Amino acid sequence: MKDLKNIEVKGRVDNPIKIVQFGEGNFLRAFIDWMFDKLNEKGSFNGNIALVQPIENGLSDLINSQDGLYHVFTKGLDNGNFVEETRLIKSVQKCINPYDSFAEYQSLAELESLEFIISNTTEAGIQFIDEELVEGKVATSYPGKLTQLLLKRFETFNGAKDKGLTILPCELINDNGGELKSCILKYIDSWNLSSDFKTWILEANSFHNTLVDRIVTGYPKDNILEYQEEVGYKDNLIVTAEHYHLWVIEKGDNQKLEQIFADSGLNVLLVDNLQPYRIRKVRVLNGAHTSMVPVGLLNGNVTVRQTVEETFTKDFVNQVIYDEICPILDFSKEEITNYADEIINRFKNPSVVHNLSSIALNSISKFKVRVLPSMLEYNEKYNKLPDNLTFALASLIIFYKGTNDMPVNDDKQIVEFFAELWKNSSVEELVVKVFENETLWGQNLTKVEGLSDIVIGTINLIEKNGVNEAWNLFRNNK
Hints:
Layout: E1 2-3, E2 17-22, H1 26-42, E3 48-52, H2 60-65, E4 70-78, E5 81-89, E6 92-96, H3 102-107, E7 116-119, H4 142-156, E8 166-169, H5 176-190, H6 195-204, E9 206-207, E10 210-213, E11 216-218, H7 224-231, E12 233-234, E13 239-242, E14 246-250, H8 255-261, E15 268-271, H9 275-298, H10 304-307, H11 311-325, H12 333-347, H13 356-359, H14 363-370, H15 372-382, H16 387-399, H17 412-424, H18 427-436, H19 438-441, H20 451-465, H21 467-476
Parallel strand pairs: 1-12, 2-3, 2-7, 3-6, 4-13, 7-8, 8-9, 14-15
Antiparallel strand pairs: 4-5, 10-14, 11-13
């Protein structure tokens, strides 16, 4: 079988690099890079992408070993019809590891052709970390890295306003563009950078809030040989995803976005306010995902589809969505129910193998953003805590125990925090310390009346009876 390197690819053009993309994982490669590959094919963009590996260990070597080439397989329903596509992605030019190649990383700032910064470094990625600015060394955080790159561009082009960039963060946090800009301004102050540079950041660059939506199931390891035989190459970066995709961008007065996406055929919405879209998507789709992960995994489930079809977890997910999340959203009952029905159908897509373990990354920060607001708003509206979302929180704490091959994948400090508590604390002590940790939740959850006692009791039920029986006992005791 042929390798994807040094091959002649029909339609691959040596376009200039117009996008620097922080993140080389499955989602961006099956979403952003897939979109711009389509735009290049239509002749409406004519630009390539340089990927930046945001953490020290990543995929840069593998991506470069395939000359940035890889295949995306999409399958799903479109207006009731089953559709599928196999696309060789040609928009990625290279991937840089800034930890090993800082000079090459900084050289991206010198490109005349550069127009966009796009990122997805997970919800935990956009944060200010107090650190020194060290010459020749990349910053730890994504906003720190971006500040270094923008500073280099500012210096290279002597603060020319026409060399500012359009910055489109895809991290699933509220006001992601505003938060990223805020972090950069903090670095400017912390590193004592010039007021001229700060002015250039504010006046020459545009930061846009965005919302992304596509279920990306990633590398099909269980049947990779079948996929490789279909494309005829030993492609070790194949990505599978659903057909559905949506990118909502607050456009501001950026004419460039209008020009690129007009008549693109892509499901890209340029809007004045994306909040209604964001709240609906984050609460329903992502909230359901994050809630089902610990419950499904503790039940022995492997995939999302299995979780929404197996009797116990199906009922659990349906009650989470229809009974606890949808009623508190500011949409008509018909509209939000139709949207929820669409989400359930996407979860059931037989062509999408979406492993719960792949959603489990950084589950604590995801719960904080995707689920906790629904819990607290439900409590405020109905003067009681939502049964199923509270049960999911208790299951999440057990999940972070890290036993029984649970695929815990989070920041090292968070993993060690939970491991230490589970080893040396009673359940009562553990829950109080977890809930008091405002770094995890953005607030002290012990102040939510009744929450600690319910979660303590639920953890004891699950530990004694298993998650399925515990759920029945939990509901019957209400």
